[in-house]
Amino acid sequence: MGKTLFDKIWEAHVIKEIENGPSLLYIDRHLIHEVTSPQAFLAIKEKGLRVRRPDMTFATCDHNTPTLHQELPIEEPSSAKAVAQLAANTKEFGIKYFPLGDPGNGIVHVCGPERGVVLCGQTVVCGDSHTATHGAFGNIAFGIGTSEVAMVFASQSLLQNKPGQTKIEVNGRLAPGVCAKDVILYIISKLGTSGCNGTFVEYCGSTFRAMSMEERMTVCNMSIEMGARGGLIAPDQTTFNYIKGRPYAPAGEAFDKAVEEWKRLKSDEDAHYDYTFSFNASDIEPMVTYGTNPGMGCPVTATIPESAVGCDAANFSKALNYMAFAPGEPMLGKKIDYIFLGSCTNGRIEDFRAFASIVKGHKKAEGITAWLVPGSKEVERKIEEEGLGEIIREAGFEIRQPGCSACLAMNADKVPAGKYCLSTSNRNFEGRQGTGARTILAGPLAVAAAGIRGVITDPREFVKSAVAGSKEKFISLTSTAVVIPVNNIDTDQIIPARFLKTTSRDSFAGKLFNDLRYKADGEPNPDFELNRMQGKILVAGRNFGCGSSREHAAWALYDYGFRAVVSSSFADIFRNNALNNGLVPVTVSQEYLDALTAAIGKDKETKITVSLEECTISYKDGCGTLHSASFEIGPYKRECLMKGYDDIDYLVAGMDDILDFEEKRK
Questions:
Q1: Which of 461, 489, 514 is where one domain is finished?
Q2: Are residues 157 and 211 in the same domain?
Q3: Alpha helix locations (H) across 567-633?
Q4: Which residues does residue 201 pair with via DSSP β-bridges, in sequence order?
Q5: Which residues contact 275 (CB under 8 A, 6 or more apart)?
Q6: Do 492 and 638 share a structural domain?
Q7: What's the pLDDT score for residue 503?
């Protein structure tokens, strides 16, 4: 029987097996912060011990730190004491510490990967349950208690029983507006908060392979919320690219050698898992929670259900009473008082990019208090470098300084009792964000949408969909027409070659038929049809678009406003270019073309209807007689035109097939 990725890493770190007891597991990386370390330091001091491997231990302050005025002393006495104690302990024991204000400071599970402290195939621990984040790099990463923190200080090892293993597979491409946070909230809603109790989860499938490292960290981060000890994803080129060049990562030949080792970190095809679950990415929508644990989640467009997986009736009712919600109520439109973007789940640069993409050009809703908290100084720096800060502030939002902030409200960032906070954090327990606070978990896109609407909103309303297409949909068009009754109009006449030097594709409308529209002195030619007639349909002579294969002719016609061209024949290359750019080439008989041209000549207000649903063109002559004709458009291109997408949009929308093909080739 083959081995899982977890098996391989575990076995490589077992120092020895204790008879009828746990395994003694070697620890590669120990991450610490100010909340769970002071008592552990005290414990080893009392035993007269030192931190055995300070070179494998890294510290930051994050939980108690303020997110405003970090240049000033911390006001809250107990928080100030905790941070000062961490500084003193790390100095005494020679541990690398990223203090408040340091370029490397931030939430431990954000700045650790940023610094290159966490690599692949390692055992990683921290006195924090969301240490599972680092499993995204193909690590056994899990949270430990303060007694275990002391154990690692003293020996760089831990006594651990090997957990069971769960495989969660998600395949397919996520729809636009659906993010990694939605994926993990969806999974937890299906399995419940105890669905993976006592096991380590391996996330497999094309959906996770297509994710960035930051997205994978979001997923692994919340493994604990379904009862798992941790979660991991096999490393690949995405992982290696992320690690390369980071301050504590190996460099040069050492990095290349490490990558060759890391490439072996994957489960065997015949590996055994205790439990296996499979999901389809196409079933996942933007998610929100409605109760007081992360398993009480539903699509943003859904109504609150009558029950939740793993939640008994009494606790379900208690949760809804706390939230002041009721079964059957829609989540859309529920009033929000606070929004929180941040935490070790969603405080990374990609989360701020997502937030900015939604709020750009909008304004913060009145009555919304917004806490946008970078996960680290590195994220804070990138926000400004990339111009995101300007976009966010222009929309009326304020960016605070790094820290855990309102995720658990250990600092001053507390949501008042009874208020609703739409939050990118990881837990929605009663009072988690402040006594009596009501937390609704969501991804950064949904949080941004609520920030500008003031209510829970489907973020897909603000997200441009590749499936929806990049072109205007063409189903049926009724318009007057411009008639240019000239045969063999070539592409150089449509857009003269001297105007093709530009590197953009949106500056040709003004040059359409330039040499025919204008006289030598630049004045408009009053005899040219385009200067005398208006409409979205162009009626032209036979063999329209002959000459060059350049798409510029189709671009110029489309950008000018034409949506259909009627002729008795088209040059094949032009016809293909037109179809690829949302322009419908309508081929009719020469007899029909002549009659249509004559009718428009008598009345330039003649309306023409082009229907893609029926593939017909029709008009009424001066006597009111309807003249119709059929034309042909292949079924694939017809579908593209009616949905408003080009070939690239079509391929992106069908990325599942490509991802499946790549998986099979592996």
A1: 461
A2: yes
A3: 572-580, 590-602
A4: 166, 231
A5: 164, 165, 166, 167, 196, 199
A6: yes
A7: 67
Q: Is the pLDDT of residue 466 over 50?
A: no
Q: Give the sheet arrangement for strand 14-17, strand by strand.
A: 14-17, 23-26, 157-160
Residues 102 and 246 both lie in one domain? yes
- CA angle at residue 298 from 293 to 299, to 5 degrees? 145
Q: How many CB atoms lie within 10 A of CB 582?
A: 20
Query: Distance between CA 120 and CA 263 in Å, rounded?
Result: 10
581 and 518 together in one domain: yes
**Domain final position from 261, 283, 305:** 283
Q: How many residues does the chain have?
A: 666
Task: Tell me how many domains the chain contains.
Answer: 3
| Boundaries of domain holding 332 | 287-461
Task: Quote the strand ranges of 144-299, DSSP E.
Answer: 157-160, 164-171, 199-204, 230-232, 275-280, 287-289, 297-299
Question: Element (H or E) spanning 90, and its range?
Answer: helix 77-93
Q: Give the per-residue SS3 of 230-274.
A: EEECCCCHHHHHHHCCCCCCCCHHHHHHHHHHHCCCCCCCCECCC
Q: Which two tokens stand for residue 600?
A: 């428009």
**What is the residue type of 508?**
F
User: Is 65 inside any structural domain?
Assistant: yes
> For tokens 């529920």, what's the residue?
334
Rounded to an integer, the average pLDDT of 247-272 is: 97
Pairing state of beta strands 616-620 and 626-630?
antiparallel
Contact 428, 441 (CB under 8 A): yes
Is residue 148 in some structural domain? yes
Instruction: Please spell the DSSP secondary structure of 373-419, one letter per residue.
Output: --SBHHHHHHHHHTTHHHHHHHTT--B--SS-GGGTT-SS--PPTT-
Q: Under a CB-based contact definition with an 8 Å cutoff, are residues 334 and 445 in contact? A: no
Identity at 243, one-letter amino acid code: I
539 DSSP β-pair partners? 483, 566
Check whether residue 446 and residue 488 sit in a common domain. Answer: no
Distance of CA 28 to the CA centre of its chain: 31
**Tell me, what CATH number does 597's domain have?**
3.20.19.10
Residue 20 belongs to domain with CATH number: 3.30.499.10
Q: Among 23, 5, 22, which residue's Cα sits nearest to residue 14? A: 23
User: For 30-57, what is the mean pLDDT?
Assistant: 96
Domain-embedded: residue 651? no
Q: What is the pLDDT of residue 130?
A: 97
DSSP 348: S
Q: Alpha-carbon distance 421 to 419, whole Å?
A: 7
What 3-state DSSP class applies to 95? coil
Model confidence over 361-419: pLDDT tens digits?
Answer: 999 999 999 999 999 999 999 999 999 999 999 999 999 999 999 999 889 899 999 99
Do 55 and 127 lie in one domain? The reply is yes
Q: Are 524 and 518 in contact (CB under 8 A)?
A: yes
What is the distance of C-alpha 207 from the center of its chain? 12
Confidence of residue 467 (pLDDT cuts 50, 70, 90): very low
Residue 567 included in any domain: yes
Query: How many Å apart are CA 204 and CA 165, to the nearest integer?
Result: 13
pLDDT per residue as tens digits for the range 562-606: 999 999 999 999 999 999 889 999 999 999 999 999 999 999 999
Strands 96-98 and 23-26: unpaired
Do 241 and 336 belong to one domain? no
